[in-house]
Amino acid sequence: MRRWNGWGDDGIEELAPPAGVRFLAWVIGEGTAPRDATLADVVSAVPPSRLPAHPLVVNDPETRVRHARGLTLGQPEVGSAAGAARESREEGPQ
User: Fold this and answer.
1) What burial letters (b/e) apply to 38-47, b meaning 16+ CB within 10 Å?
2) 3-class secondary structure per residue, the chain
3) How far is the C-alpha of 10 from the C-alpha of 19, rounded, in Å?
4) Where are the domains of the chain?
5) Is the dihedral of CA 51, 52, 53, 56 positive or negative?
6) Statement: the pTM of the whole predicted model exceeds 0.70
7) With the C-alpha atoms ordered 39, 51, 56, 75, is the resulting torsion angle positive or negative?
């Protein structure tokens, strides 16, 4: 499942073994679960664009969030030249 701000299925939960949780609490202290930011929260915090207005540039805050802060939603399809280049970068040197 793809979320606006990452990957994952909220219905799947992997828990650390209790001994591991106790060890981590002992070493670094009790943890707190992160708050999952809403798209509206993040969009409202985007500063104004410094680019001059141009008909070929989309610079509204939501588009900027979706393309520059985390996961790019417009990734090329697998099998395309751009997709092949991306897959090659992800695999790293061989």
Assistant:
1) eeeebbeebe
2) CEECCEECCCCCCCCCCHHHHHHHHHHHCCCCCCCCCCHHHHHHCCCCCCCCCCCCCCCCHHHHHHHHCCCCCCCCCCCCHHHHHHHHHHHCCC
3) 24
4) 2-91
5) negative
6) no
7) negative
Residues 84 and 16: their CA atoms lie apart, in Å, by 36
Q: Which residue has the higher pLDDT, 93 or 36?
A: 36
Report the distance separating Cα 83 and Cα 33, nearest Å.
35
Which amino acid appears at position 30 of this protein? E
Rounded to an integer, what distance in angstroms lies between the CA atom of residue 81 and that of residue 70?
22
Summary mean pLDDT of the chain:
75
